[in-house]
Amino acid sequence: MKFVPTSFFPPVALDLTKRIPMYRQLYEWFRDAIVSGQLRPGQRVPSTRALAAELNISRVPVLNAYEQLQAEGYLQTLVGSGTTISESVPDHATRPTTTARKSDVRPKSANRISRIGTEALSTPPQVWLDSLGPFRSSLPALEHFPNRIWSKLVSRHLSVPSRQLMAYGDPMGYMPFREAIAEYLGAARAVRCDPREVMVVTGSQQGLQLCAKVLFNPGDPIWMEDPGYPGAHQAFSSAGVRMIPIPVDHEGILVKEGLRRCPAANGAYLTPSHQYPTGSTMSASRRVEILQWAAKSGSWIIEDDYDSEFRFESRPIGALQGLDTRSSVIYLGTFSKVLFPALRLGYVVVPPRLVQAFSAVRDAADIFSSTLYQVVLTDFIREGHFARHLRRMRTLYMERRSVLVDAIHSQLGGMLEVIGAEAGMHLVALLPPGIDDRQVARQAAQDGISAMPLSMCQLTKQARGGLILGYGGTDTTEIQDGVRKLRASLDKLAK
Length: 495
Ligand SMILES: Cc1ncc(COP(=O)(O)O)c(C=O)c1O
Hints:
Blueprint (H helix, E strand, L loop, with lengths): L21 H14 L12 H8 L3 H13 L3 E4 L3 E4 L5 H4 L3 H4 L13 H7 L25 H13 L3 H4 L8 H15 L8 E4 L2 H12 L5 E6 L3 H8 L4 E8 L2 E2 L1 H7 L5 E4 L13 H14 L2 E5 L24 E6 L11 E4 L5 H11 L5 H12 L2 H28 L4 E3 L6 E5 L6 H10 L5 E2 L12 E5 L5 H19 L1
Parallel strand pairs: 4-5, 4-7, 7-8, 8-9
Antiparallel strand pairs: 1-2, 3-10, 5-6, 9-10, 11-12, 12-14, 13-14
The structure holds pyridoxal-5'-phosphate.
Pyridoxal-5'-phosphate binds next to α10.
């Protein structure tokens, strides 16, 4: 039998002033609730004693109503399970009807929604995101996450939860966690920060939204890498910011082009350590150029350092923020790639003069991130599990990357050109000019592959499309198999 919990039993409406007998009112209420789908087959109903007590009436009308409902097949009583809504109530009778649909009926004078809301309605479906198939980008090796250690740490804190764990927290985050993050960023990323400048966010996506809200007014122009991270496009466009596409090359964003197109931009969004998605690293000279521009024009730089932990061919490159002497850089990072994305924990290192503004705007959004995982992750870092997991994943991703590069070269060499495979958890496979990458990605999705088209990252149309192939979350067998499938998808389209 299907188990349907009773915890959401809707309030029973009785009108004691009516002349309709109480048992009849109860009977009709239950029947209507079952037919309208408010109560579902298998859902347990309160005992007659509990319902009588809750409604503050005698048990007799409740007994009579239940008896009638049982006789008509709306309720059933099974030994050991109490009384439940009958499983045999036909489904068509129990599907939500009028009440649920009323809100969908468009009134004559239709309510208006915002321009940003309207734009969001026209976003085309992205079938490549519908599954967690091979090459799904931004996915780490979930099967290698040390779940046993994690759950031990969770139960350590949950078995005797402190008041601090359960009460409201600081919009900036749990202080010991911020201290651990600041220490890690200082040592591993050459980020200059005091724990008081670290804000814990619900994924770096929230950090991007906060940057958009705190730093810019609707209509303000900001430089965006083109191609660039679609999540950043969403965050900035949903804040009404005007995105100025600036091309990137093997040294990162073309600062000179930015100066030509919009010297007075209010900011720039960058992925300097590992340009998303092309994989280039911003050169030292461009770093100096952009910091000079920011200092001169009073513009903000938003540095998204989303996967710099994974570099394979060279030593890690320090963050741009560490070179900034004028506090113009807002630095963002995430635990989505190094641990797992459903954790929804990231951080923003905010210049001291912006801490109060970020904190207030965050307070207005969702107040603070769930304390439990902040506390658990603090222990995970402090007890050495984080560093160990990182080391293991670096080796694993290096192996997965070379298996993918080799498989592409051997099976698709004539068709795909690999770029940006020196770091991170994804690479870009460029398609020959003239091939529509969305069409390829749609076909691949039908064949079970989750490859994101490069054009999803492009703000301006570019000569060559491609596929973003994530290898972090795809094991070596799936990689081999996935490349074969991809070849079959391309062959189908070529026919
Ligand atoms: C460029 C970039 N920034 C940030 C993120 C992570 O976002 P979040 O922390 O919201 O999961 C990703 C993940 O795909 C990314 O590719």
